[in-house]
Amino acid sequence: MSKGVLVDLTKCIGCGSCSVACKMWNALPYSQTSQQQGSNLDADTWTVINRAEVKKDNEPAWRFIKYQCLHCDEPACASACFSKALKKTKEGPVVYDVSLCVGCRYCMLACPFNVPKYEWDKAFPEVRKCQMCANRVYNGDSPACVSVCPAGALTYGEHKTILAMAREKINGDGGYVKHIFGEKEAGGTSWLYISDIPFENLGFRTNVTTKPLPEYTESILGLTPAVGLSWGALLTGMYVYNRRRNEIAKEKEKPGNK
Amino acid sequence: MDDQVKEDKQVTRRSFLKMMGGLSLAGITIGLTGCSNTTTMAEQAGGDGWLPQQYQGRGNWPAQVRGRVPIDPDNPSIVRDDQKCILCGQCMEVCTRVQTVAGHYGMPMADDIICVNCGQCTLWCPTAAITERDDTQKVTQAINDPNKHVIVQTAPATRVALGEEFGLPPGTWVVGQQVAALKRLGFDAVFDTNFTADLTIMEEATELIKRVTGEINAPLPQFTSCSPGWVKFCEYFYPDLLPHMSSCKSPQQMLGAVAKTYYAKVKNIKPENIVSVSIMPCTAKKFEAQRPEMNDSAHYWHKKDIQDVDVVLTTRELARLIKQQKIDLSKLPEENYDPIMGEGTGGAIIFGATGGVMEAAVRSAYFLITKQQPPADLFNLTPVRYLEGVKEAAVEVPGVGTVKVAVCHGLSNARQVLDAVRAGNAPWHFVEFMSCPGGCINGGGQPRSSVPPSDEIRMARINSLYQADAKAPLRASHENSEILAIYEKFLQHPMSELSEELLHTSYTDRGKKINALTS
Ligand code: SF4
Ligand code: SF4
Fold it and tell me: Which residues of A touch B102 (CB under 8 A)?
């Protein structure tokens, strides 16, 4: 039931089709200062390709790293979100529902991979990140980025199938390092990576815990102000929340804002 | 319709929240229906855009034509504007199938995004997201610098295509108008790459004769070396065959080298004050001019920081410069190239078409071997003309016997010839290779036509070149009076020590960059 994507870093040719597909499918604007996309995730850039210039057997080698939300099995962002605007779906994607978001940005702090971004420059900001093309996935299609990859670097499928595929690949071919990034990291993620070069040399955050992160965030959240205790405070909160949401909806309906 | 659904949901959700505030009973019922829907797609962020049809509703079947070619941001020849890319996959098609570059190398990659710089993708890209790297600024700057003597050369193929940018039919012969436009743009001297095309023939035909007679120890068949996309292709995919590659530089690079030596001496201009520009139908020429070995005029003067050709503009960039100055090319008078590098023969004109280099070489090789004018059929070598992918001919040369030649264009066709040579069953003495289908007339820097470019347009440009050759007063390179003069006054004779220094080059084995995956 739960889907995932396997990224084989040895196959990526660095064409950037995936990041363009993301921009197109999600109608995300480009930076006006450059013809090429940036190298960092931001509110309008949900996936990037970065070139890592490394050495392999003492020869220079380039690897292209596709980066986006990893869609954790037990997402820290979702557990940090007390208004349930972020949630893990049974299909795999960790999705964001703007109508529930109060704009607290706890998710940004909680994410071990620094993925969610905030629209700081907007009057009614949203939290923005890769949705794993949830509506394509619900319809039985692969995410936009996977569908356009001409190099076979991205494989979409049942999470357990692609995990088995990853294992088979790294065990069958001595060229791969014996590590599936995302199998254990952060308690497991829907996106998995395999590589011929150790992940730490490619800028991956390999020191992230292998314990599911919500175990931590819940205890952190336990310390946050007990909003629910005061009915009056909740009502005030709800009023602000409601107004904010309606304003966002209005903002969205304005021509040119879609 | 979708929007309508979305709006309804927003209403229900608002009601749900009102219910939370305990405001209305009606809210409860509406709210409850909305509640069960909280994960519907319409509420989620993203998915507001589109993708081309081939990626939609495929249930995970891969689209046949997909993605796009990788382009290094530092590629000297081509650039891409991501905002214009629609992921149609056409660049991948031409690169994979016509040029057999993409998908023909092993992964994981070394430190090079494999590209032969041919620029065919710029002609196939429907939105012109991929274009030549624009170097027009550099030229404008040089022209505006009073201390610089800015010279320009124009390739054989631009004169039958530039007119298309100004509304003239494909193939219109605008050689004189092109010179006039360049003079109005402020170039100090306008030269013809045809001059060095003739010089290339003298050197390359001499080299061929020396290979045939065993005077130099290099294998046959000899490969032509004037198409820089083809040269880089051979360096990547067939480096074992590089000894077959003629050591002659391309006409562009020969002109660059003699401009900053021979011309500089005759005109008494310091070579470092000459800015050498070329107008080419080709994006790979931008790469070629930057090759580190292309600075023989610097060696000649024992100076540093001199590059034989400084800036390469494609036909499209020249058109852009002319349009910026609001010059209507079609209304210009016909003007002539400047001496001492402005004369070209019919043999040089046809360099721009597939088969042309071979035909010109055969004409002059015949003369150099027999000291007699070649027979009439060598001035109409139809077996090597036009658009068939691989062409062959056999020419009887008294005293030598049958000389067998082959011609191919488009790099997928080159592979057929190269595989035969590799297998040791190539009957030819001399093979002409052109990177682009049709030859330079369809180079990656030429005006955009249909997508993909049609044979009709290729043929219009090719016919125009052959007509000009047929009408040319001199049709064989060895008859060019300025060529005779440069050998007499400067180079002495083909493959002299100085010719070797300035007009010949060496190649780089790039086999390691493709991880040895062949064919
Ligand atoms: S589309 Fe595929 S090959 Fe191209 S950059 Fe993305 S992952 Fe790499
Ligand atoms: S041909 Fe142009 S628009 Fe089509 S995929 Fe390539 S770069 Fe993008």
Answer: 13
